[in-house]
Specification:
Its EC number is 2.3.1.20. This is diacylglycerol O-acyltransferase. It catalyses: an acyl-CoA + a 1,2-diacyl-sn-glycerol = a triacyl-sn-glycerol + CoA. Keywords: Acyltransferase, Glycerol metabolism, Lipid biosynthesis, Lipid metabolism, Transferase. The protein is α+β, with helices and mostly antiparallel strands and 516 residues long. Helices cover 41% and strands 18% of the residues. It has a six-stranded mixed sheet with strand order 5-6-7-2-13-12. The protein has a six-stranded mixed sheet with strand order 8-15-14-11-9-10, sandwiched between helices. A three-stranded antiparallel sheet has the order 1-4-3, with no helix packed on it. The termini are far apart. About 6% of the residues have low confidence.
């Protein structure tokens, strides 16, 4: 068997929770403009560029290798039958070949599961669009990537000039697998290193890395799991002071009456958006100016994320009002928070989340944004102690867990429990920071990059935002049985943004008086 890198519990969970109705891949719909004098074949040029850079992102050539009987997490191994033509496809759009048509196709394609026998990613190039535009729909399994790693992958694919940069070819050579005698020697060295320096025991425990075979036969899996359990126990012991402080902080906040009020505001009311979803998706995208959104956040005394939440809140409020189903209690949003340190480009998931009330029960846009700023501050304070705990619990491993979790996920999906259970949150809202400079791919200018994320049972609507240049590109993805045409909701966002700006614009008379 080939040596591999075992998935963390967090990464693997996206595989176990996946069902035909709930694919667990993320993606984007990028829009390019070809130069007026472009004479080449963009599809072939783009494919050749990706081939020349595959070694920069090894995850693109890695496939899953399951453990025998699913007793442990699968591993990433290099696909020795990798074929780029199974991952980058030339696609076509029906007339009128515009963005609206592309969005409908993307929604349909995003509902299709990736083939787990191959590396878990696909690119689709749509040529022949209006105004010399080209569409690129990409999707990659969430087990391999989060928003932070996605931004790193973006830097691999794109260039900062129309002329693609030269990338050094891969270096030859590979790291040979360890023999059992070498593993045993390294194991003894690790223990000697840990216990021979008692003054540095805590730091040594935190950084302890015991050897692994990296193989997928059952004997190696049992050995590697034993090493992991020892490693986890020692690391946990080294982190006991941090864990105790976090637990103490959490208990202290729960005991605080003000914190209990904040917890009460995070309880989500049931809505039409919190039902079991089908295996179909509806997608739409829209953009607003980034500089104006930041100016609005500054005026309100908040952050850009607060403005994004306020816009999502206003859109959902409008939509539910149209159907007469807006609850009296405010809706909530699940907001992912990255744990990724600056410069960390590993292709894995380093994230946790918070629940935030989004003030859908407040009619005035200005008052709604101010309420969201206050609520998001409280939610951050409540979730802050949990940040230190997440690395301790995000990689818990137990033999036999994979098959058990997959069975439970399938039962949850088939039983329609999300129709009757209270929702953990009403919608998901995520903001992924992106590059400010203009990017290019194979000579074509990148105009937009609309995120295409995950809709789940009980949280049918996901609104993810990607910043690029001076714009915020919003991607709306939803279970099509809940909202058949999410474009209707997407079209409300520019109106909400205009209403929010107007709420912070002084009346003309005041401006004239100030000038005099």
């Amino acid at each position: 068997m080939a040596d591999g890198k075992k998935l963390s519990s967090l990464d693997a969970s996206f595989l176990y929770l996946e069902t035909p109705e709930m694919p667990m891949h993320v993606g984007s719909m990028a829009i390019f403009r070809l130069p007026d004098d472009y004479k080449g074949d963009f599809f072939e040029d783009f494919k050749a560029m990706i081939v020349s850079r595959l070694h920069i992102a090894p995850i693109l050539k890695a496939r899953l290798e399951k453990a025998p009987l699913d007793i442990d997490h699968p591993s990433w191994v290099e696909d020795d039958q990798f074929d780029i033509d199974r991952h980058i496809f030339r696609a076509s759009l029906p007339q009128p070949r515009d963005r609206a048509t592309l969005e409908r196709i993307v929604g349909w394609m995003h509902a299709k599961l990736l083939n787990r026998a191959r590396p878990l990613w696909e690119f689709y190039v749509f040529e022949g669009m209006k105004d010399n535009e080209v569409g690129l729909y990409s999707k990659m399994h969430h087990a391999a990537i989060d928003g932070g790693a996605g931004a790193a992958l973006t830097n691999m694919i794109y260039d900062i000039s129309p002329i693609p940069r030269k990338v050094d070819p891969p270096t030859a050579g590979s790291k040979p697998g360890q023999e059992p005698r070498g593993i045993a020697a390294n194991l003894l060295d690790s223990y000697q290193q840990l216990f021979s320096r008692p003054l540095e025991a805590s730091q040594a425990a935190k950084n302890l890395q015991l050897p692994r075979t990296g193989k997928s036969d059952i004997g190696s899996i049992l050995f590697d799991n034993a090493m992991y359990q020892i490693e986890s126990a020692v690391r946990f012991a080294g982190n006991i002071p941090t864990v105790l402080k976090s637990v103490s902080d959490v208990l202290g906040r729960i005991a605080d009456p003000k914190s209990r009020e904040s917890l009460a505001s995070m309880v989500s009311p049931p809505t039409m958006l919190n039902k079991t979803i089908s295996s179909e998706r509806s997608f739409a995208g829209v953009s607003i100016p980034l500089s104006r959104a930041k100016a609005l956040a500054k005026q309100a005394g908040g952050k850009l994320n607060d403005v994004v939440l306020a816009l999502a809140s206003g859109v959902v409020r409008r939509y539910l009002l149209q159907y007469g189903t807006l609850p009296a209690k405010s809706l909530t949003a699940a907001v992912p928070i990255s744990l990724r340190e600056e410069g960390n480009t590993e292709a894995n998931n380093q994230v946790f989340g918070m629940i935030c009330s989004i003030a859908t029960n407040v009619e005035n846009p200005k008052a709604r944004l101010e309420a969201i700023i206050a609520q998001s501050t409280k939610s951050k304070e409540m979730s802050h102690p949990l940040r230190a705990l997440m690395p301790q619990v995000s990689n818990i491993s137990m033999l036999g867990a994979p098959i058990m979790v997959q069975i439970l996920a399938l039962l949850y999906s088939r039983s329609n429990l999300s129709d009757v259970l209270p929702p953990a949150a009403n919608i998901t809202v995520s903001n992924v920071p992106g590059p400010r400079q203009t990017l290019y791919a194979a000579g074509a200018e990148l105009l937009h990059i609309f995120p295409v994320s995950i809709a789940t049972h009980g949280q049918a609507l996901n609104i993810t935002v990607q910043s690029y240049r001076d714009q915020l590109d919003f991607g709306f993805i939803v279970g099509a049985n809940i909202i058949p045409h999410v474009q209707v909701m997407c079209d409300m966002l520019p109106e909400e943004f205009a209403a929010l700006e107007a709420a912070y614009t002084p009346p003309a008379a005041d401006i004239k008086g100030a000038a005099e």
